[in-house]
Design a protein that fits this description.
Layout (H helix, E strand, L loop, with lengths): L14 E5 L2 E5 L10 H17 L4 H14 L4 E2 L3 E3 L2 E7 L7 E6 L20 E5 H4 L7 E7 L5 E7 L6 E7 L5 E15 L5 E7 L5 E8 L8 E5 L6 E6 L5 E7 L4 E7 L8 E2 L9 E6 L2 E6 L7 E6 L7 E4 L5 E8 L3 E8 L2 E8 L6 E2 L8 E4 L9 E7 L6 E6 L5 E6 L16 E9 L5 E9 L10 E5 L13 H7 L4 E5 L9 H5 L7 H16 L8 E6 L1 H12 L6 E5 L5 H5 L7 H8 L6 H10 L12 E7 L8 H13 L5 E6 L10 H18 L4
Helix pairs in contact: 2-4, 2-12, 6-7
Protein name: S9 family peptidase
Keywords: Hydrolase, Protease, Serine protease
Organism: Micromonospora orduensis
């Protein structure tokens, strides 16, 4: 890499805070003042420095972007989904950043979803919403709600033009194409229609960005007349709202990290008072699905990996067992259809689907052929159907949409994401790649799964470069996924691996519990164990291994940089939660209080404070030889503030100045980075070019 340009100097303005008798000095707290011109000037200077330091990769970035673009069918059409008398789908158009949301009337005798040649509009198409038109004049665009009323007349949708996830909600008349005067600013995700489509429920957030209120809006009225249906005053909890698939009930979901409560409102009586399915009990989580005369209850009451029960829909009370708890089989969701239930689950680190025919004990699991894969239900809006749509992928199999007949058990492939020929002109052939499941041994003897993919014939003598990805928080599972952009790495000889560390949900609830709160360090030591194992097993060598993670996975990146800097040639930390202690100590920050049941409450508990301080990356920067680090963030991120990686990079430079540290800030984006697909491809090309440079494959 070039060395002519000096990094910008971050001024030091020491500020102190004291908790539990411990005084901490933060020299870079001033960077959290977002509207200070000095902060913006510093971030701009960091971007200019990063541009200069990576200028030699410009040609490679262009090549990687073009490879992704060349392999992608830019003008395409999703598999239409039937709801009532229409097929709903989304089209993408070559050269345009965002999708076009459409529908077409179902024709007589039409049972299979319609198709079009080369992604062209369907005959008789009705455009509901064109994201490209909405995004005109804006650097960022995100769609929050997209909710068609049960009668198909109204479309509720919401837009965000800055990346801060504060959406403006609007209602469109699909019969005339006109926008109603209804407009509600500062809404959150989640809407639900009443049965007659006269009422729309939506969610707003408090000053700490916690979804805390569910509102009722009468279509055609002013938002000032809207009524609060539920206000959640316990700052540990957040709320959501949805209409059941049966369209019989509005569900108000109330959750903390470990406790749930669900309220129901008859969709036919939207002004009725909400009724409680079961009062909240600390540590008991449950979710509700309506099915005929009963509510299905997926819960963890005496069931670590969850069980399925039901209660009366007319008078909710005792829970009657339907699927007993089986340790090691994590039940994740239940979807109800008129004559079948479909349970989403995971066992042995793999996702699965179990079908329960109503009135029969003949339940069965749907089989899939690959040793590693990810499967789940796709959009299934129809309640009275004998067919479900599911989505399937693996590390070598592109995203695939299937329709599955619940009676005949026949599965029909409706569409597999096209992968066009790469730069060599050859079509994509999954047989040219191989995927593996390997296991690392953690320091405490725990076996940690690793998923890997590489080109066939990749050497196992330690000479291959490798990217190791990790997350490990919130019980989120990094199930195998297909990536077109990743092919550019694999074709350059890179091994791609995923470390399924504790703190994730891959091996059930216990796997999650063993990587949170006062066991959080297991996430970090598991990741290092995976890195060491890849070297020991000959997959790669430590000087040819780059680690990557985002958000809470960015915390993981910062932690392992401190824990085992010798294990990596480079680290990519995207929107990284690297100043975790500072954030979790401040209840006024977005999401802090709701996070205390994930990380602990360092304000009240000195043990939690000491434990977090011992691992949070910013607090533990030391004068050691760090690997090269690339931190990528967004100015308008409300989940992980841009100031966390900005402060981290500044402290790294001051404490270990011999290292190579870069900060890249998207000045008009949020937590998910750039919003348009081409902009997202360019960002991925930027990161992958940096990775290849670190791996000696630029």
């Amino acid at each position: 890499m070039t060395t002519e340009t000096a990094p910008p100097a971050a001024k030091r303005v020491p500020t102190e805070r004291t908790h539990h008798g411990d005084t901490v000095v933060d020299e870079y707290a001033w960077l959290a003042v977002k509207d200070d011109p000095e902060t913006i000037a510093y971030l701009t200077a960091e971007n200019e420095y990063t541009d200069a330091r990576t200028a030699h990769l410009a040609e490679l970035r262009t090549a990687l972007f073009e490879e992704t673009r060349r392999r992608t069918l830019e003008t395409d059409l999703s598999v239409p989904t039937r709801k009532g008398g229409h097929w709903y789908y989304t089209r993408t158009i070559e050269g345009q950043q965002y999708g076009v949301h459409c529908r077409r009337a179902v024709r007589d005798g039409e049972t299979d979803p319609p198709v079009s040649a080369d992604g062209a509009p369907l005959d008789g198409e009705e455009v509901l919403l064109d994201g490209n038109l909405l995004a005109e004049g804006h650097d960022f665009f995100s769609l929050g709600a997209f909710d068609v009323s049960p009668d198909g007349r109204w479309l509720a949708y919401s837009t965000d033009f800055s990346g801060d996830e504060r959406f403006t909600l609007r209602v469109k008349d699909l019969t005339t194409g006109e926008l109603l005067p209804d407009e509600v600013p500062d809404t959150f995700y989640g809407t639900a229609w009443s049965a007659d489509a006269s009422v729309l429920f939506y969610v707003t957030v408090d000053d700490a960005w916690r979804p805390n209120r569910v509102w009722r809006h009468t279509v055609g009225s002013a938002s000032a007349d809207d009524v609060v249906v539920h206000q959640e005053d316990d700052e540990r909890f957040w709320v959501g709202v949805e209409l059941t698939r049966s369209e019989k009930f509005i569900l108000v979901d109330i959750h903390s990290k470990v406790t749930s409560e669900v309220l129901v409102i008859p969709a036919g009586n939207p002004t009725g008072a909400p009724a409680v399915i079961a009062p909240r009990r600390q540590g008991i989580e449950y979710a509700v699905e309506h099915h005929g005369h009963r509510f299905l209850i997926l819960h963890n009451d005496g069931a670590e990996d969850f069980a399925l029960a039901f209660t009366s829909a007319d008078a909710p009370g005792d829970w009657v067992p339907l699927i007993e708890h089986t340790p090691g089989t994590r039940l994740e969701a239940v979807d109800a259809f008129a004559n079948h239930l479909v349970v989403s689950l995971r066992t042995d680190g793999l996702t699965g689907l179990r079908v329960l025919p109503v009135g029969s004990d003949d339940s069965y699991d749907i089989d899939f052929p690959e040793p590693l894969y990810s499967v789940g239900l796709d959009a299934n809006p129809e309640y009275r159907t004998g067919q479900i749509r599911l989505r399937y992928a693996s590390l070598v199999t592109p995203d695939s949409v299937y329709d599955y007949d619940l009676v005949t058990r026949q599965m029909v492939l409706r569409k597999q994401k096209p992968v066009l020929p790469g730069p060599d002109g050859r079509p994509y052939d999954p047989a040219e790649y191989e995927q593996h499941r390997d296991w690392a041994l953690a320091d405490d003897g725990t076996r940690v799964p690793i998923s890997l993919v590489c080109r066939v014939g990749t050497p196992r003598d330690g000479s291959a470069p490798c990217e190791l990805y990790g997350y490990g928080s919130y019980e989120a599972s990094m199930d195998p996924w297909f990536s077109v952009a990743r092919l550019s790495l694999l074709d350059r000889g890179v091994v791609f691996a995923v470390a399924h560390t504790r703190g994730g949900g891959e091996l059930g609830r216990r796997w999650y519990d063993q990587g949170k709160m006062l066991a959080k360090k297991n996430t970090f030591t598991d990741f290092v164990a995976c890195a060491r194992h890849l070297v020991k097993a000959g997959w790669t060598a430590s000087d040819r291994l780059v680690a990557r993670g985002a958000s809470a996975g960015g915390l993981l990146m910062g932690a392992v940089a401190n824990l085992a800097p010798d294990a990596f040639a480079g680290i990519v930390a995207q929107v990284p939660f690297v100043d975790a202690l500072t954030s979790i100590l401040d209840p006024s920050l977005p999401l802090t209080v709701t996070e205390w049941e994930e990380w602990g409450n360092p304000l009240e508990d000195p043990e939690v404070y000491a434990y977090m301080k011992s691992y949070t990356p910013y607090e533990n920067v030391a004068a050691v030889d760090y690997p090269a680090i690339l931190a990528v963030t967004s100015l308008n991120d409300t989940r992980v503030l841009y100031s966390e990686p900005a402060k981290w990079i500044a402290r790294l430079r001051a404490t270990a100045p011999q290292g190579d540290y870069l900060l890249k800030t998207e000045m008009g984006a949020g937590h998910g980075g750039p919003s348009g697909r081409y902009d997202a491809w360019r960002e991925e090309a930027f990161i992958n070019a940096w990775i290849l440079d670190r791996l000696g494959r630029a």
